[in-house]
Specification:
CATH architecture: Orthogonal Bundle
Largest sheet: 2 strands, antiparallel
Number of helices: 4
Strand content: 5-15%
CATH topology: Arc Repressor Mutant, subunit A
Structural class: mainly alpha
Number of domains: 1
Number of strands: 4
Helix content: 40-55%
Order of helices and strands: EEHHHEEH
Amino acid sequence: MQIGGRKIIELTPFLNKESNIPLYMQLVDFIKQEILSGNIRPGEKLPSKRKLAEYLGLSINTIQSAYEQLTAESYAESRPRKGIFVADFKNDLLPETVLFHQQLHEKAGQENEQIKIDFNSDT
């Protein structure tokens, strides 16, 4: 979706309100997976706390906690008066992880051969 020439990220996670995992952590895990899979790219703006809270039927505090956790783990960065953006991993150690997950994701859709790993401890 685009508004005013800017792409708006649509997040539609499945959040289990009956899980022992807090809702904000479920949201954090979902967004991290979207980033690692390449569905959300570095530099993209995450939805505003208010709009996402309204869309998901959650409190703004839940969204705020999720965004703070993503920022603490360096997946996102806050830009004053602009919003929360997916971090650019160019100078971090994380790019290798992101690249690895993107390559796995791409290979899963392209590869027909099966990878075999021998977990047998008898050598």
